[in-house]
Design a protein that fits this description.
Distance between the termini: 24 Å
Structural class: alpha+beta
Shape: elongated
CATH topology of the largest domain: OB fold (Dihydrolipoamide Acetyltransferase, E2P)
Helix content: 25-40%
CATH architecture of the largest domain: Beta Barrel
Strand order of the largest sheet: 3-2-1-4-5
CATH class of the largest domain: Mainly Beta
Order of helices and strands: HEEEHEEHH
Number of strands: 5
Strand content: 25-35%
Length: about 170
């Protein structure tokens, strides 16, 4: 009974891998979408200062957080947040204040206010190329083929006999 489940797993992996190979091959001829960093003006929507007392040491820790919003090139309103901004930056901000915001042109939900926190530029993001997907899916399908081979040629009884005779 266990081999039926293993066989179904292997068939599923081969099908998934073949589908991925088909899609990767079809993407070789497409022109990749231009991805770039876009700079715009955003608005601070919420400022929060949170104080927590450490239970053992008794020290008081304060964290400063900022939420902001901006309008992307496509007209959609996006939001972002920065946690643990510095006390000096927090003191210089007010709700409704304009700030500089950067975001990815292809995915505006990846955004940040570089002056107040970390922003990961487009150039630092990995790009899933068709070649990578092709290699991954071929390997996935091959692993599924090995699982099918195991399920067809080996059964639980022969594996138990091998372990006893070894």
């Amino acid at each position: 009974m266990g081999n039926i489940k293993v066989l179904i797993l292997g068939i599923g992996m081969v099908c998934f891998g073949a589908f991925g190979v088909y899609n990767a091959i079809n993407d070789f001829g497409t022109v990749p979408e231009e991805k770039r960093d876009v700079t715009t003006t955003g608005t601070v929507t919420h400022l929060t200062a949170t104080q927590l007392r450490h239970a053992l040491a008794g020290t008081l820790n304060t964290t400063y957080d900022m939420d902001f919003s901006f309008v992307a090139e496509d007209g959609s309103t996006q939001t972002g947040e920065h946690n643990n901004i510095s006390e000096a930056d927090f003191a210089g901000l007010s709700e409704g204040q304009s700030i500089t915001v950067k975001y990815h042109s292809d995915q505006p939900s990846i955004n940040g206010a570089p002056a107040y926190g970390t922003y990961v530029p487009v150039s630092a993001m990995p790009d899933a190329t068709p070649q990578f997907r092709l290699y991954f899916c071929v390997g996935f399908a091959a692993l599924g083929g090995l699982i099918i081979f195991y399920a067809v040629w080996f059964d639980d009884e022969s594996a138990a006999n091998y372990a006893v005779n070894a």
